[in-house]
Model the fold of this input.
Amino acid sequence: MRFQEGWSKVSLSQILELLYGKSLPKSAREDGSYPVYGSNGTVGYHSEFAVTGPGIIVGRKGSCGEVHYCDSDFWPIDTTYYVNLKRNDNLRFVAYLLSSLGLNQMNSHSTIPGLNRERVYRLSFPLPPLSEQKKIAAVLLKLQRAIEAQERIIQSLRDLKKSTMQHLFTRGLRGEKTKMTEIGEIPESWDVVRLEDVCSFLSGGTPRKSHSEFWKGTVPWVSPKDMKKPRLKDAKDHITEEALNSGSCLAPVRSIFIVVRGMILMKDVPIALTEVPMAFNQDMKAIIPNKQYDPEFLFYALQAFKHLLFQKVGRSAHGTRTIISTTLSEFKVPRPCMSEQIQIAASLRIAEKNTAICESRKACLQSLFKTTLNNLMTGAIRVADIDIDVREVEG
Done:
């Protein structure tokens, strides 16, 4: 490898050592201001610290190779390493350097992921002089701060949508009196209905895997792994129209998909609205509203009241979390008049779009950070001669 002028080839063992964190069970922690770090990041706070900050924490077990930077004194638990610098290198630069080396791909255990520090020590890389380290760290920190700002905005928008949804489904839009029902407080003019009275249901299926030609089509075939966004336009897998007659079926546009088996976790039931006709597998149901319901309103209503649906989740004979068909069909939701349904759905859709815009910005910034990190760490982009304020990375 050809090195940039002033850069030198070193191994990690020359610039740092990885020291074991110290056990601190949750039961032994006392309320305090010092962050406690595990492999995934902050796992709590304690009244004492084990390491003087600022410092770098590296996941040793579990989420091995994950790198975290802490500005303050901290306590790294025994599933982590913490970094001790051997030379006068810039600490924040070293944190970015470690995150660029793919440590999370160096699992040395077959069962529980683990990071072997002797393997890490052997990693070699080009190292710029201290003055350039600081400038590289300053550039990356500005990008990181921009990502963090977007994360805060996204969380604020999510909180706003949640509170708006709670208000709309409790008070409505007309300022009318409310009444208490079996699903909670709702406007006095609203009804409570069972899904089976206002919807039809479709069951999904999986075309035969032995017929490979079934899996070379253009029809999106949704499984629970695709249910990570509230609106679905596509899926990882696609099937042919012929496959629809061999174990699957097609749900129309603006159907509501709900996972009824398997990925029902963390007090949550994944729910999504389709924006194109889609097929789906047997771990899901498709809900198709009749003319009494605006599909988007019902979609938001199910989101607002899915905590009640989760309370009815059971377990199959194999221990899988399951929502049985009768539970879903008998589940109750509120029903205002159609005009109010449409207005409420439009209000929540605006909040959802604003969040999606910020999530797209965050994704762009993350991509820019990743590319910039690689280019700066290899010297493909040089900042040595650029006037950059490095005060924030000198602490």
User: Anything to note?
Assistant: The first strand starts at residue 8 and ends at 11. Residues 130-171 form the longest helix (42 residues). The two ends are 32 Å apart (CA to CA). Helices lie at 12-15, 91-100, 117-121, 130-171, 195-198, 295-310, 325-329, 338-378.
